[in-house]
């Protein structure tokens, strides 16, 4: 039987003061990271899930997992791609467990985008997202969303668990579909 590394809330070999100091450091680190890119992560998850509550829950769960990971392992992840991968995996697990609601109300979209002043513009953006979702395969849409968030091909590949060459091909195929859609749309107008 393996002995637990915890005894009354304190790691063996680590004093209570040292553990409290470490927890405080990790907490402030997690808070700083949350403030710097939680909004980007939320936007990506909202596009991915089309569910405001699930996206919000996934962001919270991701940063909680980061905090727990840092306390347990002690080494920070290599890049912010770690957060996107953890969040994506969490969302996939949740979607497998329940049937998702694929519609985002206009009110939820306005809250998620900072409550823009022009409801018409928000509706047009939401309709454009619906058109893209219908036009592109899920993998193409995910690659485009991550690229729009500023990730490099290598980082997108890590997040999605695919090869960088596949990312390039997927992006090229998705962009080709978008160009064809808009050329046909303009010619028909």
Tell me about this structure.
It contains 8 helices and 2 strands; from the N terminus they run ββαααααααα. The protein has 189 residues and is an all-alpha fold. It has 2 domains: 10-103, Rna Polymerase Sigma Factor, Chain: A (Orthogonal Bundle); 136-189, Winged helix-like DNA-binding domain superfamily/Winged helix DNA-binding domain (Arc Repressor Mutant, subunit A, Orthogonal Bundle), CATH 1.10.10. It is elongated, with a radius of gyration of 20 Å. Residues 1-10 have low confidence and may be disordered.
What is the structure about, briefly put?
About 75% of the residues lie in helices and about 0% in strands. It has eight helices and two strands. A two-stranded antiparallel ribbon has the order 1-2.
CATH third-level topology of the largest domain:
Rna Polymerase Sigma Factor, Chain: A
Output mean pLDDT: 78
Q: What is the domain total for the residues?
A: 2
Q: Structural class, from secondary structure content?
A: mainly alpha
Report on the biggest sheet. Answer: 2 strands, antiparallel
Low-pLDDT parts are 1-10
Q: What is the CATH architecture assignment of the largest domain?
A: Orthogonal Bundle
Strands, total number = 2
Order of helices and strands: EEHHHHHHHH
